[in-house]
Amino acid sequence: MRNTFSNDTRLLGLLGHPIRHSYSPFIYNISAQLLNLDLLYLPFDIPPSDLKSAVRGMVTLGFKGWNVTIPHKETIKKHLSNLSEEAALVGAVNTVVNDVGNLVGYNTDVHGIHEVLLPFKDEVGGLEVTVLGAGGAARAAVYSLIKYFRPAKIHIINRTEQRADSLKDYFYNKMRYSEIKTYILFPPEVHEVISNSKLVVNTTSVGMFPEVDSQLFYDPKVFNRGQIVFDMVYNPIETGLLKMAKGEGAVTINGLRMLVSQAAKSFELWTGQELPAPAIHDALLNYIK
Ligand SMILES: NC(=O)c1ccc[n+]([C@@H]2O[C@H](COP(=O)([O-])OP(=O)(O)OC[C@H]3O[C@@H](n4cnc5c(N)ncnc54)[C@H](OP(=O)(O)O)[C@@H]3O)[C@@H](O)[C@H]2O)c1
């Protein structure tokens, strides 16, 4: 396994704020070692006011690409030359490819969501689904659902109703999709909406380490047998929400597979190579617990 670098080492990175809890350096550096690639992935904690100069610095230093995470996924767009069709429609970028100074933005979260939900495509099509949250991850989820899964209706439930409404307007304007209904999180009526949904996707950060005991709701009866419940949170691997859903007989999906799938797509864009996904998934399971 390679553990030295050369003058030709391919540099990749991450721009975010904060980035302390990111698993990306682990994923890409272990992948490079397993594939014996001369590649180094470095995380950079960049506050919003420094984003423009950080992008310039990445280009000057010859970084071949980088990931973008909270809070830069939308603001990075104005520093790029082009966007992939998906990044343009989702309105957020999580991966940048530097093609000799031509910076192209991609959204590989969409790919991750698609891969994770694909086995359930026939079950979800034509039925109602619920997306909990209305941030960047919700945008990727709603886009993916509209484009690949064609549910009868998408319910978006969020703490801040305005944000859910603006997502609804966004997808109407961008994709002429009119089957979105929005709700504020707390009233009990939303329990019924969730109960009647074939698929429930949590895109909020509620339940994430270290606040593992926080919950969006505490009544397990919102879930039932026959439902599919996908929580994008990957630390802990089994969140309180997933435990509750599993207890009621729902099929549950944790955030780890999406994390690995979206990373695999970014890796392919940068290197043209396949990320050793099963090995990385297992390595993460050991690393996170
Ligand atoms: N598995 C993966 O590969 C993957 C990929 C992307 C993201 N994620 C995860 O998805 C989560 C969200 O990421 P994001 O980029 O969408 O973040 P974001 O844009 O900041 O959105 C956060 C969302 O969580 C809601 N929220 C936060 N704290 C809350 C609370 N105490 N009560 C109720 N709602 C709350 C926010 O509601 P308001 O609008 O009311 O603030 C908003 O809807 C994170 O945990 C992230 O790690 C996972």
Beta fraction: 15-25%
User: How would you sum up the major sheet?
Assistant: 6 strands, mixed
Instruction: Kindly identify the CATH topology of the largest domain.
Output: Rossmann fold
The string of secondary-structure elements, in order, is: EHEHEEHEEHHEHEHEHEEHEHH
What topology, given as strand order, has the largest sheet? Answer: 2-1-3-5-6-4
Number of strands: 12
Query: Could you say how many structural domains there are in total?
Result: 2
Described by the principal axes of the CA atoms, the overall outline is globular
Query: What kind of assembly state do the chains in view correspond to?
Result: single chain
Measure the end-to-end span.
Answer: 25 Å
Bound molecules: NADP nicotinamide-adenine-dinucleotide phosphate
Which CATH C-level class of the largest domain is it? Alpha Beta
CATH architecture group name of the largest domain: 3-Layer(aba) Sandwich
Query: What would the average pLDDT be, to the nearest integer?
Result: 95
Treating each run of at least 4 consecutive H or I residues as one helix, how many helices? 11
* Helix residue percentage: 25-40%
Q: Which structural class do the helices and strands define?
A: alpha/beta
Low-confidence stretches are none
